[in-house]
Amino acid sequence: MCGIAGAYWTNPHHEVSAEVLKRMTDSLAHRGPDDSGIYQRPQQEHGPYGIVPGIGLGHRRLSIIDLAGGHQPLANEDETVWTVFNGEIFNFKSLRARLEGAGHTFRTDSDTEVIVHLFEDEGVDAFRHFNGMFAIAVWDQRHRRIVLGRDRLGQKPLYFRVQDDQLLFGSELKAILQVPGVPREVDPGGVDAYLTYQYVPHPRTIFKGIHKLPPGCYLTFDGQKLEVISYWNPDFAREENLSLADAKAELLELFTDSVKLRLQADVPLGAFLSGGIDSSLVVATMKQLTDQPVKTFSIGFPQKDYDETSYARTVAEHLGTEHHEFQVTPDTIEILPKLIHHYDEPMADSSAIPTWYVSQMTREHVTVALSGDGGDELFAGYDRYKAVRLAAMVDKLGPFGRLASRIGMNVLPAGGPQKSILRRGYRFAEAMSLSPARRYLDWISIFNETRRSDLYEDAFVSQLPDSDPYTFLYNAWKKVGRRDPISAASLADLTTYLPCDLNTKVDIAAMANALECRQPFLDYRLAEFAIRCPAKWKWRGGRGKFLLKHAFGDRLPKVIWNRKKMGFGVPLNTWFRGQLKEILHDTLLSETAMSRGYFQPEGVKLLLEEHDKNQFDHSARLWALLVLELWHREWVDGHA
User: Fold this and answer.
1) Which residues are ATP-binding (predicted)?
2) Overall average pLDDT of the 461-485 stretch
């Protein structure tokens, strides 16, 4: 696990010096404290393949495999292919055997060397052969181009900027911002998307001119032509008619092999354990595959409604793990400046707080941790899918269903606790006039379209692009074609919420603490199986993960299978009416915040007032506004 950065140019006036390249690389030192390397070569007028562009590659390393021989940047024998790489190629041993059989000679035992040799043979098709989590940059001298590639499900981030004949890239935005002259102009469309989703969706970033490479894509640039091409295109619309027995057998084989591959390491290894089904299954399978005690790590809160440590403890005792716990209190909000610095873009998923702390605690004991991310998206585990299914049933009633929804809006309260039954009923009825995808976005949005319109200053609205943030979700939703609504919602989450929110949250929090996090559910073979798996084997009896329980039911205590899903939330509601009230008000009502030109001051004051009086739970919205303002102070005003 590492950090990568670099540059490509075909005009000597746009050269990125070795000094600047070092600054780019050093800005990622937290991602790789064990080693660093730089390859920088100015543009050459007369190279073996004609005029050779300038290239700079930087690398920071967290040593996991081949501790002595895995130095980067790394080249092939004649130095026509160079690479820097962040992540892990879990099937590198089988790829290496194939390449050695084809005549390639290896100098190291690292997975990185597989990349250069496979690229020699396959070019950009090499990405299709990698099973792993990765962000890869390849300098292809023969074709005088830079190639960037990202794993299929977006576990590893990769940012880039193209200006004329120069391309800059980095594992984090901060690396690109080290280059003199790179503007920090905030994209109004990025702000609008952020307040919709609580993250800025790919390929956009919060800054104009800087982009994210989408998951499952590679990019080529030769100084003139930029191409972004998707190399992973599973058929989301195809549902295979699998029997339950066949589905169970395939799941058992794929999941076990995925965990086994992710146990490869030359350093200590453990697992996050929330006490939910997914992380518990990862730990249970680790237990079956190793003779050593599994180290597990959990995070909790003093508030019972947000604390899962008792369930994690139950699983740990059942499996006999070496278990560790940590409790988060409002006093630990001092971590907020660190979060703002490490999450280069505003990121309003407040569970980044416990994710940071569990990563910090875990790193004190191990260097690699497995997690259960992805199980909810692949096997329909979120409670919100109940609303999706119910809405589809109401849609079938036609005019009668719409009439019932209007009546519900008139009799149910619009305010009150966010998670109360009555409040949920109102939100359900309110959205029933919308299309299924638009309705789903309305439910998952931090600020839906109406709330954003009411909050924005007119001058800010005039700066917004014609594109609608809804398009990001809709493009994912429509891939499922005529499949059932739960498949539409869960598979849309797989390609939107998972890479942009969950994977980003885990990557930044873990890597800031020099911890590698591996996610067995996100093996692309398992994902492809879940994509074609019938919804009837995922959702049954009003609950998701039916197939997981059928396949792995005997591995966990019954209480884990039957417990109510809690999620990885943070008690912001309580904090913002107590210990954090002052900092919230002082920040959002400051002259600095009010002068941004985004929001009507009356709108912000109303959110605070309604929350203070317990008329409405605006905690998620207020957290999003707080993070946005603090991000501005760090990355725009302060030029971090």
Assistant:
1) 299, 371-372
2) 95
